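Quick one: structure for this chain?
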Amino acid sequence: MASITFKNDPVTTVGELPEIGEALPAFELVGQDLAPVSSADLAGKRVVLNIFPSLDTGTCAMSVRKFNEMAAGLENTVVVCVSKDLPFAQARFCGAEGLENVVTGSAFRSTFGGDYGVTMTDGPLAGLLSRAVVVADADGKIVHAEQVAEIGEEPDYDAAKAALA
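Got it. Here's what it folds into:
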């Protein structure tokens, strides 16, 4: 279990993030159009997983905006923004914000949170995903993994981008 905080109060997750050098765990999420968004569909591409609790918070929304900006300049890279928000809410947010460089994936009916060790088990956000970033190279090997220690803080965007260099 990862020990993180929410507004400085302790929170735990169901496990730990996959480690650098491991294969990216397979996943299947639900896209904005209700079609699957799966790791199999992204084979041969570099993958950035921006994982967070909900688009309805300022920090989560900011991370999607910043990763959208970053994705515009990355070749052979797909940024997947993962939360338990419903696909309809993800589509509304990206449409209203004009975000076209990221893919959203809803984990509302998948095992993603458990497979990646990011489902929070306690605290006011129990059941939602913690804030984390996982980056894999085109061979599907993890080259960066960050479990953000305080849910209200943004991830290290520069470290994620540097892992792709």
